[in-house]
Specification:
- The complex is a heterodimer of chains A (315) and B (428).
- By secondary structure, chain A is of the alpha/beta class.
- In chain A, 33% of the residues lie in helices and 14% in strands.
- Chain A folds into two domains: 149 residues, Rossmann fold, CATH 3.40.50.1370; 153 residues, Rossmann fold (3-Layer(aba) Sandwich), CATH 3.40.50.1370.
- Chain A is built from nine helices and nine strands.
- In chain A, strand 3, helix 4 and strand 4 form a beta-alpha-beta unit.
- The longest helix of chain A has 19 residues.
- The two termini of chain A are 26 Å apart.
- Chain B contains twelve helices and 21 strands.
- In chain B, helix 7 runs parallel beside helix 8 and helix 8 packs parallel to helix 10.
- The chains are: A alpha/beta (315), B alpha/beta (428).
Chain lengths: 315, 428
């Protein structure tokens, strides 16, 4: 595996292997010195053409725990503002000797295009509405490790609630969850559902109330305030009345059900309940797992040395 | 001048005329077909064995980019690409900078075409000033200098009242308006056909309805004004049916389809390569089937390239920001002949005779007969060749057919009595 651009690039076997590697990385993260020399001498460039502090920090932390050198490029303070093309930016950074690009871009497909202009590995850290494959991996990791092992996805009912149409998280999660055997229900106003989803292997529901009693996982998406008007919902209040997680609704969840969210949370929009009051919340666990999963992906793409992750490896 | 008096003979080709297809030699002297017959002699003999000879192709839809974007194409480089594609006339689209909404720019484009001398460059005019859809251009002045086709191509005229006034002016002068059918309110930010691929790729979609709504509106306006209307680059099955019904009603409408809308599917964009981004977008197999049916039954009159050169770096952008458009002139015959099963007469009909009539070009689309102007293309439907973006005369290389095998190729092109392409090579 050279690049990770989309969940579609991964076979089920590869997903499982990455998650097993993430178990190993989780263990490293619990050590008193949580740093190993597995990627020493490798250079990872985090190239964010769109702001995302938390994803960038997660990747950079993952790279540093594996002892890779990290270059940080953010479009806001760079040559992109001076009109440099995507190709020129990538070729310039490539010429500095980069082994992997971690790319966030507002345009769907940009990470895939970048692969033409560099010999380095390209890791998609979120592109447009298209894909965010490490999010799907960390979500799957969180669900499976909460319920037991990997086959614990089979037959589970997962509702994804909110703006599915404009969500790369949803596109990645839907693909990975369904391929691992989960039943996925999309809960959204019809204007925020993607068109032509007949072959996605999902069902839909038009209110959170239809599914809340029976789900194993309630996955809440961030609802951007400016999308409310595009949802054809007359008001934020109307939206929340059908699609927000409230105290009353939370009380109807099964005792074993998980509540997840990719962050950042919009309190008062999709989350009208304090997540810390929800026993099933895995929202902070997702963040922690994100580092282990991203370590696993970087390690796998860059052909790291497993022996150098052993306890006592020198840094 | 010796070259002017030189006689040119094309030997061994089958003549393709509307009334017959037959084997004969053709002799050209002083820009005119001087003889058609057996065993003709001449100063220059061109081999036409295995080929057809027809009036030169006429492209109703060429972006030559000059003035304004000479980095992508010039009138000369675009004319050379046209000649290599067998075209002896191209209608130059008006989305230049400045736009072809005034007499001076129109005359400049025509003059540069004459200087290049590779094909007839026919400037179109804009429908509205600056192609902004608000004020009408000076129709009388532009018509007086010979403009017969008006379009805001790249933009559809959104305002129905503006379009009605333009059609009224066109009806009075007997000129044709050509519409780029796109209701822009339905295509904001659109990147590709609004279908299954688009949805899984997570990009904004360009729904078929956005085209069909404007086709429907304009047919109603033609009914109201009686003006001649040409529909540019139809891309959906629904549009074909609308035009079919309008023709059955006897309305003066014509339509074109591009080689790429006859041959390429929306799923080619799955790799996010902007080379396949075009407006209107590549659509589905059902649309292609109906476009082919429309071309076969005469609903669609002509194949037009929408040749749209873009400098390399502009296509090295993300799919949503890269400009739409692809090259077409040098591959049109091969694509049409590979994608469809057409007779030689059908090919000449959709690539020469019909477009010459729509653009009102008296020197083009004429039969191969004594006394007719020598605007001629010699081509075959049998040569198999592989397209290379590195071997194109166009200044840009944004062909979607790179690496693909096509059947059918142009061997010689004669424009205004001069050999401009011989054995597939441009002579100037």
């Amino acid at each position: 595996m050279k690049h990770l651009l989309s969940t579609h690039d991964l076979s089920v076997e590869q997903m499982i292997s990455l998650l097993e590697t993430a178990d190993y990385m989780s263990e490293i993260n619990t050590r008193s010195i949580s740093k190993v020399p597995a990627l020493r001498g490798k250079t990872v460039a985090s190239v964010f053409f769109e702001d995302s502090t938390r994803t960038r920090l997660s990747f950079e932390t993952a790279a540093k725990r594996l002892s890779a050198d990290v270059l940080t490029f953010s479009a806001a303070s760079s040559s992109v503002n001076k009109g440099e093309s995507l190709r020129d930016t990538i070729e310039t950074l490539s010429a500095m000797g980069v082994d992997a690009f971690v790319v966030r871009h507002k345009s769907s497909g940009a990470p895939q295009q970048i692969t033409q202009w560099t010999n380095a590995s390209v890791l998609n850290a979120g592109d447009g509405w298209h894909q965010h494959p490490t999010q799907a991996l960390l979500d799957t990791y969180t669900i499976t490790r909460s319920f037991g092992q990997l086959d614990s996805m089979k037959g589970r009912t997962i509702a994804i609630v909110g703006d599915i149409k404009h969500s790369r998280v949803a596109r990645s999660d839907i693909d990975m969850f369904t391929r691992l055997g989960a039943e996925v229900i999309l809960v959204a106003p019809s204007a925020l559902l993607p068109s032509h989803i007949e072959n996605w292997g999902v069902t839909t529901a038009s209110s959170i109330d239809e599914v809340i009693n029976s789900v194993d996982v309630l996955y809440m998406l961030r609802m951007q305030r400016e999308r409310i008007s595009a949802s054809n919902m007359p008001s934020l209040r109307e939206y929340s009345s059908h699609y927000a997680l409230t105290v009353e609704r939370a009380a109807r969840l099964s005792p074993h059900a998980l509540v997840m969210h990719p962050g950042p949370i919009n309190r008062g929009i999709e989350m009208m309940v304090d997540p810390s009051d929800l026993p099933g919340s895995r929202i902070l666990q997702q963040v922690t797992n994100g580092i282990a999963v991203r370590m696993a992906v970087l390690f796998t793409l860059l052909g790291g040395d497993l022996t150098a992750t052993a306890t006592g490896g020198t840094v | 001048m010796s070259s002017a008096t030189q006689s040119i003979v094309i030997r061994g080709a089958q003549i393709v005329n509307p009334d017959a297809v037959f084997l004969a030699d053709v002799r050209i002297v002083n820009g005119i077909i001087e003889a058609v017959g057996e065993n003709l002699q001449g100063d220059l003999v061109l081999d036409g064995t295995g080929c057809y000879i027809s009036s030169g192709f006429v492209d109703l839809h060429t972006h030559l980019r000059e003035p304004g974007k000479e980095e992508a194409e010039t009138i000369e480089s675009g004319s050379r690409a046209a000649a290599l594609g067998g075209y002896t006339a191209v209608v130059a689209m008006p989305n230049t900078d400045p736009a072809q909404d005034n007499v001076a720019t129109v005359l400049f484009v025509r003059e540069r075409g004459i200087e290049a001398g590779l094909c007839e460059v026919v400037p179109s005019g804009c429908i509205t000033v600056g192609r902004l859809g608000r004020e009408l251009v000076p129709y009388d002045s532009l018509s007086r200098v010979g403009v017969t086709l008006f379009t805001d191509d790249g933009n559809g005229v959104q305002d129905a009242h503006v379009m009605q006034r333009a059609l009224t002016a066109a009806a009075r002068l007997g000129v044709t308006l050509a519409q780029h059918c796109e209701v822009s309110a339905l295509t904001e930010g659109a990147v590709m056909h609004d279908g299954a691929c688009c949805s899984s790729m997570g990009v904004p979609g360009w729904p078929s309805e956005a085209e069909e709504q404007m086709v429907r509106r304009d047919i109603a306006l033609v009914r109201l004004t009686g003006a001649k209307m040409h529909f540019l680059h139809l891309s959906t099955a629904g549009s074909v049916q609308l035009v079919r019904d309008a023709k059955a009603e006897g309305l003066p409408v014509t339509a074109e389809v591009t080689p790429h809308h006859l041959s390429l599917l929306d799923e080619m964009l799955l790799g996010f390569d902007p080379i396949f981004k075009v407006n209107p977008p590549l659509r589905t197999a059902e649309d292609i089937a109906e476009l082919k049916r429309g071309l076969a039954d005469g609903t669609i009159d002509a194949v037009a390239t929408d040749h749209a050169p873009h400098a390399g770096h502009t296509k090295e952008q993300p799919l949503d920001t890269a400009p739409p458009g692809m090259l077409g002139l040098e591959t049109a015959l091969g694509v049409v002949n590979t994608a469809l099963t057409l007779t030689a007469q059908q090919i000449a009909q959709v690539m020469s005779w019909a477009p010459a009539r729509i653009a009102s070009l008296p020197q083009q689309g004429r039969p191969i007969a004594v006394g007719e102007p020598a605007n001629i293309s010699v081509w075959n439907t049998t040569d198999v060749w592989t397209v290379s973006r590195h071997d194109l005369a166009s200044r840009s290389n944004n062909t979607p057919y790179h690496g693909m095998e096509l059947r059918g190729r142009v061997r010689h092109t004669i424009y205004n009595g001069q050999v401009v392409v011989q054995e597939g090579k441009a002579l100037k």
